[in-house]
């Protein structure tokens, strides 16, 4: 899961991109990069680390120009090197180009094989490099047409921002799996970002979302951006954006994330009621749903787990039970509140089950008499292939165990999940969602 | 405001001190240090930065031994150098000694003048150095008696941990202004820390608080620690520990901080009710009190401000309205929730008024129809001289303006503070508190 | 000017490459990189900085395997980014490949244009990327044949090391402009390096030089390396390797660099004698020639200029006469020796004239009565296009001024250069040299 | 062995101190520090590392003011911590004070014991701290008189620079063991430094040396500095400054170091002639003496060992024969020159014998037929207690072995040292030298 941002026709474009990436940093903490164009040349800086670690005033000054695109990547297995940071910048027949990508191409191996067969070289393992090759190899005369040709080759979930020396293209796949919003800067110019919270931070006014299947083109001298509907829209907005990834203050397709999460909690209270003294969230991800659960059930809400936000790069001796310690360093239960009480604890999801197991243990050790876990999402039974880094079937606990078996494993007194139906109702029945992790309906063919 | 920790008679003492300091890091982010003794020599490492920035596996290995003391300092004006980091370690007539200190000595200038008159040199601006000089200059034969002599010279609020090569002393002033708790490690040995959350993280069992006016002595070969009541206790526990500094999961003098904060919110609801659609906290410091306010008033609780925890060392261009941006980078309101609504926003205190003013502005810009600010503490009208880094009278807004004038300045629709009486009731009327910031009663003479 | 190294069939290949690069570090100080293969995968680490700055034990351990290639780059204008560091590693149809290159391709723009026309993308500005593209696009079935095809497209001066997962290729252009030597490791396996001083450091035995126009192939299971003479040899060994770049202890085509430099000094003494009290070198580059001049002329040799080797990254305020200070920080004359004396000062070359001018000034200020500058190379009148980073005609002082005018500019009492004929005799008349900088004979067509 | 510098009454004093320390960096590479006064306050920055590593433009700007003192320390055993870096700055009765010290106090333990007995605390292991304590404890009214009182307590070899907020004191012990020179800055103001090479770099004009037993006082408003002869001079200039420590371009007591070293080589040629093909130096320390040996003997001089100046912090695997590798990384013999030849190799001293042994081995492996080692100093048979970090008797090879036994150990074909008499003649018989390392005459009582 990544954050991408594009900024067009503004002063100090790379600084605005920096702040926008900063707002979306919860989406990615491993690597970050920005490329900027001053009309003559595209310059790029990217490295491992947080936004604030990779950039400083001097580096942003180097990236001068009035347009920029940026990327912030979440840790993904096997890509421990800076060579897999984005943007991917290159020069090709028409000049400099730079691309950032959020999503996942399902036919990347076929595309790569074909390209390699034709003599292409790959300097990273990112599927983003596929796209740049397809654009470079197109016989079309204009970049726009080359991009369109490339988009007809790739399949998958993608939000793309492509920058030439003078134009910027924003593209969303026909399913609209990943969100992408357009904002207008106060002093003129545009910003396009994965999340509306980025627009808010830089004081941009929300214009509209890029539509599923749409390509938006920003060019100098034109006040308005151009829109081309490339593909028939078939919206499947990723439900996980609402469940976990997006920031509560963001708005996706007109729906506020915090409000949606609260409704998930409310539905959960209806579907899986329990008698308890308190409702508590696993902070920070379970807070909104827990508030909803509390409001719907009438059970008091308490913040009985304190989160330590300084964890960062704490070294931990590998000889100890490391995973245990990691949760302990991050989450501390309030003994005095929990002692002898029956607790409903709300979290956003269960993936492998190990974290939930430790949380139940922490709460019981802190004196909780009963721990009832309620998950504000359905059981994750399938890997997402559309941009979320879920593990394989083997590691997904709900792909291998019944709810009762999971409950036993995590040692909770009871356990319940939201139904898929209730999830959809919570976000809004007026839209279609990508629910692959829950129902295994891999709709991208 | 600092965090101190001492660890005695355990394996890898410096590692345990590291984890304990990590748990208490909200108390200090500027500089940190640990000194450890292996019975022969005291070694010290200290530097500017977070606990996780200053230490790594290698440095903690260098600090080997079975006892250690550590310190984590909050940013204080004018002390931008590593020379003001603690512990202060020195060698003197009886050998190596190391000290950490949380608090403030009110007669430090007199003591320093006298020492300087006698030929002492000071290599820092910390009052901790006073204490080490007094100990070194004492004519007493034993360290214990030297410390006692020194303690009869200094006046103020202090929690001290003093380490020789083989003993550790924990001392709390007779007023008990700053907290200090003793825990027992599972595999033997002791930990003494500013906050019980440190004990929890390292799995230590709470034994008891160090008593006001008490000196506790840990020495090898004695299973039990020795206790000497040096001064008549006259308890004045700092109310600000409950209001702001301590972590919600900590317990001070038997009182849980989270519970106390919730009660402050409840009292506030009674004293300063208002009709509103939502109660929202300023995260993270106002969360507990806001929950109390919501529960007592029956007004729904919402987390309508999102906090960005990555802020850290974000560089901010000084040409902009910097203070504004700082608050914006940290706090993001959820527009969809706030639009057109009447809001009660709960914060823990108002010092200069600038932050509150920006928060009201953020909320109004996000669409809030009315913003009623409620502060879960009384008006701060006096500088604390007992260890909290409050500004001078000139900068304290409530020392210079009436509540109505403050309301006008921060542009809230209404504003109310907790009464001193209600504050005391919230924490518990069975104890005496240090309330100097509120009532100007400077009880240490 | 770069250093390259390849190591084949040895334990800890990347460590040996590291030490070899370290020995050749005078050739490059700006960026360094190593890629290693363990038979399954090629891993690469490269960054700006000295060999010792880029690598540590941990990084070399990451680069495990029994073969490695490495590169160390000299500062070149405009390439201030890590993206122009080598090796260039990529995956293509036949798997992983990595290349390092020392030299310069004269038809790189044509080749790049053609490749770009065919849809290739370039992620750096290095001509090395051309070669990898040509290999990837070849229709040949085997890597060896693809490389050969590529070599028939490129023109210029090059030494290449190419690594697949299991083989290593060492290639030298038909002119043999840049040196490349093969050594045998004591415990088996091979090393190929730009300079024999690298072989000495890692205790490898010199086997022979790679021949002009030859491709040498190292593969597992074959004790002996394979040799293919790809092009008719037409040797033009770069004279500048002898004059300046190579280390005095290195041996190129059987000729020791130190001995050659001494002979240049001797010839210079014959051609341009002068009455003087002392011969002094500009350290370190002029030392060998100065010794030769002294021995031939009978004038005493003195080390009257002290070189400060710590200069490195000294920051220098840009407001001052920076170039002046830079020379001053590096070179300090010994006043007591120089006062009132007639001095012959020997340097290896004059490029822009600015450094020579400052050296004369330093010596005069230190009291020298007369400063006679003797340059152990002919006048540089043409840019080298074969791998040495010489400036354009406009900046080359000898392309624009007569020797007398240069003398005037540098304010020396007399000035003389070596003749081209004498240079050739000094190194040895049995070989043909690349002398483009001196005679403008651009022999590569 | 350290470098100290003081700068008085100049603009950007800390920058000038920085450049002066940079010039003297061969004297110390482990830690460096500067303190500066702007008339109101003394600020200090010090850390482990080279001059260029510890300071940058920003840090020097922080150290603003018109006077500064600085220190650069050589690696000494057991002091691996920043707490032993100088200057030592403190505040005492009369205000701020800062001290740097080059030398060694022989009664430091007695002084420290007495101070500690009186209640002093020590925050480092440096004897410099003794001096600051003595000054602080003096009953004298003025700093000058306090310093004088302190100087009557301490015994040993010392050059001191002491800075108050408005004055600077330069002091040299009555033996003048360590050098200290005064220079006048071109635009007014003074510099005092351990070596005249520092004066040259910052364009200061040499005024004179501080005299043995003299205190020089610089104060604002007085064009001329004040001089007080505190002690009867009894000059014993350290011979090792001429042999090894000082830079060849420096001048000590009117004697140029390079010229002295050449004479040592000449004397050595007279005393210990040998038939040989070449004279070669161990670079860089043996170069000057080797030139002298060559000139006196008529044997040709060759630079047959190349020194790699990039060594720095090369990590070296501890499993290998580390010491061997260290010499190899630094020194590379030129095989072609050495093969089959009889060599005289000149070095400046033999301490433990291990390095000499490796050099002989390197030369023999490179093909030298005979290796005759000549040392341009007498045998080191006693530890220097006056500021040079020589090892104990046990480790000094010449304290335990005859010259013949040393020769056997280092495996040279012959070995000879300079006589003490010849050493004195080489530097000049008009002065008295500290020769303790050679004759064990510990003249400071």
UniProtKB/TrEMBL annotation, chains A, B, C, D:
Spans through the membrane: none
Catalytic residues in the record: 2 (nucleophile)
Cofactor(s) listed: Mg(2+)
Enzyme Commission identifier(s): 2.4.2.14
InterPro entries: GATase_2_dom (IPR017932), Ntn_hydrolases_N (IPR029055), PRTase-like (IPR029057), PRTase_dom (IPR000836), PurF (IPR005854), PurF_N (IPR035584)
Alphabetized Gene3D superfamilies for the sequence: 3.40.50.2020, Glutamine Phosphoribosylpyrophosphate, subunit 1, domain 1 (3.60.20.10)
Enzyme class: transferase
Name under which the protein is recorded: Amidophosphoribosyltransferase
Lineage: Bacteria, Pseudomonadati, Campylobacterota, Epsilonproteobacteria, Campylobacterales
């Amino acid at each position: 899961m990544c954050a991408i941002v594009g900024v067009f026709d503004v002063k100090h474009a790379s600084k605005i991109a920096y702040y926008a990436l900063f707002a979306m940093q919860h989406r990615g903490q491993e690597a970050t990069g920005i490329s900027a164009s001053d009309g003559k040349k595209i310059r790029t800086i990217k490295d491992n680390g947080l936004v604030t670690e990779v950039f400083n005033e001097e580096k942003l000054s180097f990236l001068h120009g009035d347009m920029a695109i940026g990327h912030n990547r979440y840790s993904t297995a096997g890509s421990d090197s800076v060579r897999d940071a984005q943007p991917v910048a290159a020069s090709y027949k028409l000049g400099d180009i730079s691309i950032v990508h959020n999503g996942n191409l399902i036919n990347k191996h076929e595309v790569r094989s074909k390209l390699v067969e034709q003599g292409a070289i790959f300097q990273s393992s990112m599927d983003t490099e596929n796209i740049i090759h397809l654009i470079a190899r197109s016989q079309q005369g204009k970049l726009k047409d080359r991009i369109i040709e490339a988009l007809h080759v790739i399949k998958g979930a993608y939000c793309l921002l492509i920058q030439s020396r003078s134009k910027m293209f924003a593209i969303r796949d026909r399913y609209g799996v990943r969100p992408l919003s357009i904002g207008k800067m106060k002093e003129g110019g545009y910003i396009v970002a994965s999340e509306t919270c980025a627009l808010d931070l830089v004081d941009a006014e929300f214009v509209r979302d890029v539509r599923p299947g749409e390509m938006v083109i920003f060019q100098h001298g034109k006040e308005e951006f151009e829109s081309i509907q490339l593909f028939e829209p078939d919206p499947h907005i990723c439900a996980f954006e609402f469940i976990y990834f997006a920031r509560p203050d963001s708005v996706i397709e007109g729906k506020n994330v915090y409000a949606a999460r609260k409704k998930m909690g409310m539905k959960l209270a209806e579907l899986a009621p329990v008698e308890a003294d308190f409702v508590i969230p696993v902070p920070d991800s379970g807070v909104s749903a827990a508030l909803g659960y509390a409001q719907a059930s009438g059970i008091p809400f308490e913040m009985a787990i304190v989160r330590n936000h300084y964890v960062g790069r704490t070294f931990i001796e590998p000889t100890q039970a490391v995973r245990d310690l990691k949760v302990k360093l991050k989450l501390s239960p309030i003994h005095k509140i929990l002692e002898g009480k029956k607790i409903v604890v709300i979290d956003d999801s269960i993936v492998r089950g190990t974290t939930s197991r430790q949380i139940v243990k922490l709460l019981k050790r802190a004196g909780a008499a009963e721990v009832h876990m309620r998950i504000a999402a359905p059981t994750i039974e399938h890997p997402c292939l559309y941009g979320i880094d879920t593990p394989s079937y083997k590691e997904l606990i709900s792909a291998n165990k019944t709810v009762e078996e999971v409950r036993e494993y995590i040692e909770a007194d009871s356990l319940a999940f939201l139904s898929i139906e209730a999830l959809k109702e919570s976000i809004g029945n007026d839209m279609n969602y990508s629910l692959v992790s829950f129902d295994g309906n891999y709709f991208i063919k």
